[in-house]
Amino acid sequence: MTKTTTVMANVKRAIIEKEAGKNGKIFTASFIKKDGTKRVMTCRLGVKKHLVGTGPSTTAHIDKYMTVYDVNVPDPKRAYRNLNLETVYSIKGAGQTIEFK
Hints:
This protein is of the alpha+beta class. It has one domain: SH3 type barrels. About 20% of the residues lie in helices and about 35% in strands. It is built from 1 helix and 6 strands; from the N terminus they run H-E-E-E-E-E-E. Strands 4-3-2-1-5-6 form a 6-stranded antiparallel β-sheet, with helices on one face.
């Protein structure tokens, strides 16, 4: 990971935490999956209801990942997902859309 991608991942994280996903609001992230396909995910930050483990996050130390709760998966399969901030190309939330190139 280069310094530029780390900075961009941190910018996206800040936008999500301070604007789009602020106070547990639902937001939409559009990104490229690992297999190269596009995906749009509606998610929230700060959901604790369905946690099963009590230990620390296994990806918290990796800047490019952000753990979100995917709200479009039907119960009981709703799940936490690791969003790769390096592949996010659009964020919608708090009444605004932010696109990245």
